[in-house]
Amino acid sequence: MVMTDTHPRRSALRRLLVVAVSLASAGAGLTVSGILSAEGSSFPSAVPEAKCGPGARPETDVQGRVPQRDYDSGRVKRGYQCNTRLVAHHGGTGGFKTLRYTDRRGHTCAYYDSTRTFPLDSLFQVRSGFGVIVLDMSDPARPRTTATLKTPAMLSPHESLLVEPRRGLLAGVLGNATTNVGILEIYDIRDDCRQPKLLSATPSAVLGHESGWSPDGKTYWAASSVGQTLVAIDVSSPRSPRQVFRQDGVNFHGLRFSPDGRTMYASNISNDISDGTFPGEGLRVIDVSEVQAREADPSIRVLSDLTWREGSIPQVAQPFRRAGRSYVLQVDEFANFGPTSFADAAVGAARIIDVTDPRRPRVISNLRLQVHQPASRRAAFNDPGASSPVGGYAAHYCSAPYQQNPRIVGCSMIASGLRLFDIRDLTHPKEIGYFNRPVDSAAPLKAGANALSQPAWDVKGRSVWYTDGNSGFYVVKLTNGIGQLLAR
Questions:
Q1: Count of Cβ atoms closer than 10 Å to residue 39 Cβ
Q2: From start to end residue, where is composition biased (Basic and acidic residues) (predicted)?
Q3: pTM for the full model?
Q4: Which of 34, 238, 279, 430 could join 48 via S-S bond, C-beta 3.0 to 4.6 A?
């Protein structure tokens, strides 16, 4: 672990080199990562498989896999479910976030971005709609579109779209798979979540890709990966956002915070290319207390860096607490890729990290499927969609239903669909259910499943909401008793 002061800026030459390597090596706009050979590598074990109850349509191969033979036989058209059932389906596309909010009048809404990479998805969006889709979820079995947000940032928020529940704000930054002009847009959803009202649109985010809200809802943080910026924006007055901190030369993804807002958990894509790869990828824990306190000319301090050998591209670290201790649910996206065989690339999947001591975080368990393991990955590499460098059998976002003592988490694991895990024993998580609706399509961008979104939770309804980029928004009921784990 490393403890350094990050206030000084890195050299422009180093940043330029990192950006050039990233763009040249990742045609899809993703930062290239170091490749780990599967041979001889020590990977964590896959979690125990779910035991499916009545109503199941179980997978036919190893945990998480949808093999080519299921497409050939037509089996794939029935989908796969275990201790889950479909409640509702809406639209035909999806992006990176599925968000839930109940306004002060009692209306409950869902928000989801409809694009993965704008405008590459445009042909598929013509039918389902562009922008951020607003759904009235008064009846979860019948989602009803009440608005579609088509302002610039909402057309392509990439991974930055988030709801601030305390103040009733919806915000996102104009971004894409690398970076874009950082127009921050803030909407008021507090009075009527069904009809968001635009409060401001400003270039305060500098560049765009990912984001995070401080827990008090007064600071919106924006991160740009290839753009190499980290920006804090004071939104105490959401009509007049103002930048209060900027750091250049950092390569961060999702940003989440301790309950007091003083500690940031940054998914660090890293700028360390000393061995031709990015060995510094992982979790960076940062003291941002000076920014949170609005000190003049604030600086931030790195408290620790944590890496893991089987990592791919760090996506986000969602905080939660259990028995007085602090943890993050860290998820990696996609697979590492580089100059050697992508079939042998490491899949990071997800893990639980104890961050009670922010200077000494430690991984205590992993959330992996059998299809993420090296031998299974090679065997499944030619399945529909599996060889995509921005998809395949990998993870993308995970979430818990709440931050205090969650017992269940859900993960969108791309070609493996929505996966549900029992985390009552934090050191020995196990899978307890799944829901997957792969698409049988000749179009390469539509092959298989593409579950990318951060899941949202309807605790009272014992349901989870998520989107699949290839097929749209889903309301999924937890069955056969696993929904009881949602009870507080």
A1: 8
A2: 58-74
A3: 0.90
A4: 430
